[in-house]
Amino acid sequence: MNEVLVRLRGSWQDLQDSLWLFPALGVFLSVAVAWILVTFEPTLERLPSALTYTGSADGARAILAELAGATFTVVGVVFSLTVVALQMASSQFTPRLLRTFLKDRSVQVVLSGMVSSGVFHVVVLRYVRTPDGGEEPFVPELAVSVALLFALVAVGMLVFFLHHLTSRLRVDDVMASIRKQTLAVLDSLAVDREMLPDQVAPTPPAEARPVVARTSGYLQTASPSALSATAEEHDLVVCLRPKPGQWVAAGTTVAWVWPVDDGEAVEVDDDLAAALHRCFHLGRDRTESDDVAFGLRQLSDIAARALSTGVNDPTTCVQALGQLSTIMVALADQPLGAALAYDADGRLRAVQPRPTFAEHLELAITQPRRYGASEPTVLIAVLELLIDVAERVADSGDRAASVRHQLRRTLAAAELPDDADVRTVRAFADAVAVTLDDGVRPANIGR
Predict the structure, then answer these.
(1) What pLDDT, in 10s, does the model give residues 266-297?
(2) Which residues fall within 8 angstroms of residue 159, CB to CB, at 6 or more apart?
(3) 152, 158, 274, 370: most buried by Cβ count inside 10 Å?
(4) Which domain holds residue 35?
(5) SS3 category, 352
């Protein structure tokens, strides 16, 4: 059952992040609602004339035709604006934001509402009969009235879309959205232990046999419990190779398997390989499904892009480091590292590698530090991030050591010709060391 849920979750995530799903559902519902309103209108009592359309059939056809044409024209404008927003997000921030814009529920709802409105007008227009063809004239008054209301709603959705799109292109809103999504992913991950030290994945023994990937893709989601159940069924131990968000090429090793107890090597046949592949999902895009590092990657890319020669915007980099600091502070209190699954007898059955705290911290500040080595405001922002994290990890030996390691690398990378800048950066670096030693942030720094 867990295996089915893993594959369904991955497929459903891909569907939700597409631009066509909600419009397709909207078109289906608009056709169904139009048919229901037209079919059952004769069975209803006469509605108040103030609430329904009371004009002629020719008038109804003219109104519906104009509304349909105008709506589909606006739909084209909305799609064009969406494409422009995607291009700007890709070039100005990072290409990894494209999926974030595509999965924006507001954009999907507006597009589906616009398309549904146009289809509704066309479907209702089909049911309007004029006396020109020798048939008895028929005007579905209720359906035409709903079409007029639908047009007003579409106008409101267009105004909302323009406001939402301009807001979404603000760098502050983009980075805040990434932070919220990343923290939501962190909250959704199951915490299977209370120990703070990072859990290290065991090294596969010599008798371990590789399981070859059948398709290429990013590891979007995996279920340690499903892997454990499959391992118990075949009486073995399984260890995935990729971490969440890593690319797997078809024909390369995606996992290792070995016997639980000392014995003969496990034979990896097609049935075993297929059973293991059902426990994880490889997709064409990297997503934040189980991947906290993806949010760090996006914010780090925005910071690096802001420091590029053609942009020269250290302020945006500093803002990105502020958002990264919030995520790293949240990670500081989380048990990280590999997820291990055991059977009822306490024997190891499944291993899913995940990034450690040190790897997350490396991802967060390496590129901003490298590209901002000659900009004191960027170096200070990096050191302020380390101070924030140091407050949370001062009493954790391995994580405090990671912060000290990053502190030394930051000082070594600095390229500051101005002595005043050197003194300022050094003061913040000393504050990091003091915070790690005392567990309290110095009161005279950053004020």
Answers:
(1) 788 888 888 899 889 888 888 877 788 999 99
(2) none
(3) 158
(4) 2-169
(5) strand
Query: Which residue is it, tokens 């407050």?
Result: 391
254 — phi, psi (to 5°)?
-110, -20
Residue 179, both tokens = 């932070």
Domain boundary among 142, 169, 196: 169
**Residues paired with 218 in a beta bridge:** 247, 283
The answer to pTM > 0.90 is no
Query: What residue type is 203 in one-letter code?
Result: T
**Largest Cα–Cα separation, the chain:** 94
Asked if the structure places residue 281 within a domain, the reply is no
In a domain, residue 344? The reply is no
Distances (CA, A) of 249 to 254, 289, 353, 418: 9, 20, 17, 48
Q: Is the pLDDT of residue 333 over 90?
A: no
Judge if 165 and 298 occupy the same domain: no
Asked whether the beta carbons of 64 and 121 are under 8 A apart, the reply is: yes
- Of the residues 169, 198, 219, the one at which a domain ends: 169
- Which of 82-99 are b and which e, b meaning 16 or more Cβ less than 10 Å from the residue's Cβ? beebbeebeebbbebbbb
Say whether both 301 and 165 belong to one domain.
no
Structural element, H or E, at residue 362: helix 357-371
